[in-house]
Design a protein that fits this description.
Blueprint: H1 6-59, H2 65-114, H3 118-128
Helix pairs in contact: 1-2, 1-3
């Protein structure tokens, strides 16, 4: 690897942080929207079975407020779990699409404009990024130096 000067390393660090922030921000926005939509869908899908269960218990004269509370809490719990699973998957897909369509072409342009290699970028990014950073998933870093 060509050794980077301190100035080049600083330029690279700033770019890595900017690309990671762009990737994280868009994925958070899209996963929030996905969670809201999935929660609405989950509540809508569970409304009919809940209404049927409540109607059956009402007609059998076994309906009381504790049963309504328990059934409603259970339905809300299931809808929230469903929404969380959908939102997590939507976030993963949003990160992948955003990386492929927006971030990776910007990285390639940045590297070309500044005469850096992808290997240099990946090594600096590996040093700069936290373990949970979404951009880290797309780095190619050799295990042994």
């Amino acid at each position: 690897m060509n050794t980077l000067s301190d100035e080049q390393r600083q330029i690279m660090r700033e770019a890595v942080e900017e690309f990671n922030d762009q990737l994280a921000t868009q994925s958070i926005n899209l996963s929030g929207q996905a969670f809201t939509n999935a929660l609405k869908l989950g509540c809508g899908l569970l409304a009919l079975p809940l209404a049927i269960v409540l109607a059956l218990t009402y007609f059998r004269r076994t309906l009381d407020f504790s049963a309504v509370f328990v059934y409603s809490c259970l339905a809300l719990l299931i809808a929230t779990a469903f929404a969380s699973l959908i939102a997590r998957r939507a976030k993963q897909l949003a990160i992948q699409d955003n990386y492929k369509l927006d971030i990776n072409p910007e990285i390639i342009k940045f590297l070309h404009d500044n005469n850096f290699t992808r290997r240099q970028f990946d090594e600096v990014a590996n040093e700069v990024l936290e373990d949970e950073a979404p951009l880290r998933e797309y780095l190619v870093v050799p295990e042994d130096k």
